[in-house]
Amino acid sequence: MNTMRLLLCMLFVVTISPVAAKPTDIYLVIYTTHDGHTGHVGLAVDNYTIVVRDTVINHVKTTCNDTVRTLSLTYFDLWGPAEIRWDEHADNLASRYFTLPRSSSEPRITADYFLSRGLPHSYDYPCDALVRLRTSPTLDARLKEIAAGIQVERPYFNSREYNCTDFVLLCLNRLLHTNLEAKEYIPFTWSSTPNEFYKTVVAQLPVQIMKAAGDEVGKSFVQERIINSVLFNQSTHHEKTND
What we know:
By secondary structure, this protein is an alpha+beta fold. The chain is 29% helix and 30% strand. Keywords: Signal.
């Protein structure tokens, strides 16, 4: 385990709440860039509730608070406009942020949902990779605050400088006080991509791989998205309408 991974493990231990908190998780949901598909990155956070229970300490009856998982997740991601012209990829465009579910009437989101069904508002097929990062209720609550704050702070989408991968990286870096990057060269500048994101978090964070990415994760965005979009006759967007 390298130094960064060790320090992050220590961070997760010392930030656990004193109310008998049980570890919770962050899930990083990845659709890799392959066969002409752009790919996507999102993140999900465990939800939990505080349960008050009676207990006996030194023969004295008292109450304590337990942090209990609800077995559901809150999911965050960023999208640009449904259609982006070739000459707009360096422009700041209207953003579409999602925090799901938006109400109790919408489908319950779990890790198995990503693995078996995809995203509730977009790709309707299983994710290409899913990794889990052990956290604490305190960190999870903080991450939700960070994600909500960024949506207000950055009300735009930029394919080259602030895309879905950049949003998730910014959330993680602010939460963990890291400087993770996931850029690769796409003529004529460097941009964050899903494939580089997967390789970065697996190498630098103490994650558990729930579903490993395929061999395509080692290939470049230029090959898998630009060249293969012609070979596989793929359009720029592959998600179902998300609104």
